[in-house]
From TrEMBL, chains A, B:
Family per similarity comment: Belongs to the DSD1 family.
InterPro entries: Ala_racemase_N, D-amino_acid_metab_enzyme, D-ser_dehydrat-like_dom, D-ser_dehydrat-like_sf, PLP-binding_barrel
Keyword set includes Transferase: no
SUPFAM superfamilies, alphabetized: PLP-binding barrel
Lineage: Bacteria, Pseudomonadati, Pseudomonadota, Alphaproteobacteria, Acetobacterales
Domain D-serine dehydratase-like per the UniProt entry, residue ranges: 264-351
Official protein name in the record: DSD1 family PLP-dependent enzyme
Superkingdom of this protein's organism: Bacteria
Keywords: Lyase
């Protein structure tokens, strides 16, 4: 059941029912503008990652500022975006299973869709699905550029898979997916620069070997909010797949030389108990704010520290300064925005203290 | 948007789209029966916690086996249960905010509902809401029995709050909420026994002091799956609020002298990449299976170990034995069932390899 929204346009923020997902619209728009401004001179294009926002509204705002399309991780996300009118969607991931592939392929009738593969059996499965539907779709080869998760080895194994794609009647070779996920949260700029230099070398070498085999590489995609400045400057990456930049996690802010974005996404919580001395308990635990990348940070309330999350309770220690009152509302900066958004049905868009809009998290819960 | 279910009745389990929430019906029913059988001779009644299952279907199955009602943590959960016909619901938590209290009070017209308080201001707010609606509702005093989160001190502070409730025209004193959450996952039986002995002493002392002031204490509620045997044997607890027993977390199974329940809840995942030697990647990361109480355990596949969860990927190390094939489906036992269920729209009920039923997670996403 889609839950009713926790607010109405025109309300003051402190009237919003909690826990609620607050999007600070001024900061959010500034982030979209900042990324567009940064990428414009580099030649690299933004293909923003919708796994962060799961929203056709936000996808359209990114594309209005120059993004060439969207990435998704799952077919259910691709469906929501395609149904909502997004014209260019890359599933930046493997999709295994005949039913899912059939659903993916069906989208080729209403949008430009592409997908990744790291296995010859998968290429055959995508070809079979495309043939059955009578369409032709681009397939990118995912290469492992340092994350040790999915992806074939750069160089000859990637070239062999690309040739297999190119030789498939209902497929086109779409390029390389070369995302280095584990580099995003490396703490020092030097670590991140070195990781992406190595990833870009792997990609560049593979592009060159593809060229020698007569295969053009239309897309080299990758990068996230932690490293995009390196990929964009590499000369080899053509598409930047950052997503979190729009919201800015607490954890990204812990990187040295943190990316230049403002915190735009918050979980609004209410103080629901002040019974323990020195402690305030809020109604946002780890069901309301993801803790996989650390606990949330309390926004603009020095002296308050979020120290523990249980299912529906967040425990705050009052270190100094004014203690919050029972019923007071606090903004929490999530440690990790993507899974936090995924817990909600609605964004509550706020500008200067007033609710301006409600946007559904339309691709939430699409597990498959 | 409510997502379409990942399966249809009659399918084989391996045909279910993934990630999906699998309820093994034989194990689940055995757990419900085991708890009913355990409590019958103790005199303590089950008021199962719906924060675990968020399902009116499961609530009804628990009540058919003798549960006197359900607990919830949030008004949105209480609404779903009351709308679905559950006749007796305790919000085992504080609810702060006039809009939420009005919603809670409205349920008193269709069900027996009760709520907790740990602050005199809250008692006044509940009284105001009940007066406005022209109803009378029971309010329990939450006492802190060792968790140091919510709740007033046992003894005189609890008695004072109970007297304030009893003196409020539209409230009744409903009893004591005495839940020791942090004891649930203490590893040794001795630790858990000592924690609950102390909690029961606090509750018993407070009940006696209430009696001296002429206040009867109809309910003393608490306990979870980790400790319920102690509360049920205490002679002071009248209602057992276990929830996880129905599903049985991987983390509860790590307790010494683990509670006598079977793993009934699984996340079904598909192997989506075998590109890395010695590694299988599944399509279930921490958006699909909660990791706040540890990583999931792979069910009945010795030699496979789940070693890392990113947003949509789970990384499995192949330690020995037969490696899983691309496309193979694996059952994961969640470290923590409650927040795992909260990520899904549907239970897929499976019996001996076949999908038997689909049940909505009807109270999911009710953040407020």
């Amino acid at each position: 059941m889609l839950q009713s929204p926790p607010a109405e346009p025109g309300m003051r923020e402190e009237e919003v029912d909690t826990p609620a997902l607050i999007l600070d619209l001024d900061a959010f728009e500034a982030n979209l503008d900042a990324m567009a401004g940064f990428l414009a001179p580099t030649g690299a294009k933004l293909r923003a990652h919708a796994k962060t926002h799961k929203s056709t509204v936000i996808a359209k705002l990114q594309m209005a500022r120059g993004a060439v399309g969207q990435c998704v991780q799952k077919v259910a996300e691709a469906e929501q975006l395609a149904w909502g009118g997004i014209p260019d969607i890359l599933v930046s991931n493997q999709v295994v299973g005949a039913r899912k592939l059939a659903r993916f392929i069906a989208l080729a009738r209403i949008a430009d869709v592409a997908i990744c593969a790291d296995d010859a059996a998968q290429v055959a499965a995508i070809e079979a699905a495309a043939e059955a539907a009578g369409v032709r779709v681009p397939v990118l080869v995912e290469i492992d550029v340092g994350m040790a998760r999915c992806g074939v080895e750069p160089g000859p194994p990637a070239v062999a898979l690309a040739e297999r794609i190119a030789a498939s009647k209902h497929l086109r070779f779409g390029g390389l997916q070369a995302y280095h996920g584990s580099a995003q949260h490396q703490r020092t700029p030097e670590q991140r620069a070195a990781s992406i230099a190595a990833a870009a070398d792997s990609a560049r070498r593979t592009v060159e070997q593809l060229r020698q085999r007569g295969l053009d590489c239309p897309i080299v995609g990758g990068a996230g909010t932690g490293t995009f400045r390196h990929e964009a400057a590499s000369g080899v990456y053509t598409e930047i797949q950052a997503g979190s930049y729009a919201f800015m996690d607490a954890d990204y802010a812990r990187n040295d030389d943190a990316p230049p974005f403002r915190h735009a996404l918050f979980v609004l919580a209410t103080v629901m108990s002040r019974a323990m001395p020195g402690v305030a308990v809020v109604d946002a635990g780890h069901k309301a704010v993801a803790v996989d990348s650390g606990l949330p940070v309390i926004w603009e309330r020095p002296g308050l520290r979020f120290v523990g999350a249980s299912d529906e309770h967040g425990k705050i220690v009052i270190e100094d300064g004014a203690a919050p009152a029972l019923g007071e509302k606090l903004r929490l900066v999530p440690g990790h925005c993507d899974p936090t958004v995924d817990r909600y049905d609605w964004y509550v868009g706020v500008r200067r203290g007033r609710v301006e809009c409600l946007w559904p998290v339309s691709a939430r819960g699409g597990m498959a």
